[in-house]
Amino acid sequence: MHIDRRIIYSAAACSIAFSYIIHYPLFSSPIYSDIVSFWYKGFWKPEIPYLELPFEYPPLAGFLTYLSAVLGRDLVAYYTIFSLIIAGFYFLLVEITVRLCKMRRVDLGYVLVFLILSPSILLYTIYNFDMIFAALLILSIYLLMKGRAKLSAIIFSITSLVKLVNILAIPFILEYLEDWKDRIAYLLLSIGVFGAVNIALWYANPSFIDETYLYHLRWGLENAWFLVFFPDEKTWNTAKLFSLALLCYGLLKVYARECADLPTRMFMILSVFLLSSYVFTPQMVLWLLPLLAVMGRLPIPYFAFELANSAIILLWFEEPNPLQLGALPQYFAILRAVMLFIILVEVYRGVERFKPIKVYEEYF
Hints:
Layout: H1 5-22, H2 34-43, H3 59-72, H4 75-103, H5 109-115, H6 119-124, H7 130-145, H8 149-160, H9 170-176, H10 180-204, H11 208-217, H12 236-255, H13 262-276, H14 289-295, H15 302-316, H16 328-350
């Protein structure tokens, strides 16, 4: 099925507009969005994040939130500016994914399914920083596959300033590079921008590391499938050790799968992280969708996976305690984990059918 780029972008514009509407803060019953909650946490003043206002997300996330608040001055303007910023990254994600699909000769119908018609895209694009993270990560992958390793490393480092998860992929990226000099340069650049910004903020505010990064270590279980085994909050420290062990085991299994290409490995790394993490918020699914599109895969469990991921937020406020075992969102979180695990196993076992692809000079 041939799909014109104009159809992709027309549909994408409608998708982002729909996401903007359902979270619009002045409606009588908008769907919850973290963006709106940030406003009430102190950005309405506005206070400078990390210096005057503790903020639990990395520095680029805080800067974009602060920028939206300063330019917006009121809730609607702030929400609209923030939404426009996310929309820019969303269209970047769509464009880079289209290019990668063309490079890999994958039908653009996958872009339409995963990046436009997906319920998670509609519900969670104007929601948090995950769309920004996904766009920067896929851009970094694209640049690396085009042979522009240094620029890829810089974008990779900037990606870490939105969310830290991509650092798990550094060993796999270094293995992808064939020359030791390229590996050392990539490593230094990929931690350089991130390190410089964080050191500067730590110097300005010695509490910065605790308030931003260590904050998450103190967080409890949220939408983790293994809540079944650790329903009591007193056992959650043990659950976090279980989470770490599961993550290490999963990453070692992915590392051993040498025949997988870069997008496939990135999908497996992120899936392993999500399945082993003690916090799996529904917007994190956005990380996986462009990779599924690029891989040209439409797994049968995907539809149940999306149903479960959408139900988590739609049912969240129907429960007095949506985090406890037995609450409807947690049943759907378990279903989501089962579906993602099946997809991951399918991808893991099927990588032999996909020839690793590195640089495509003939395109773009």
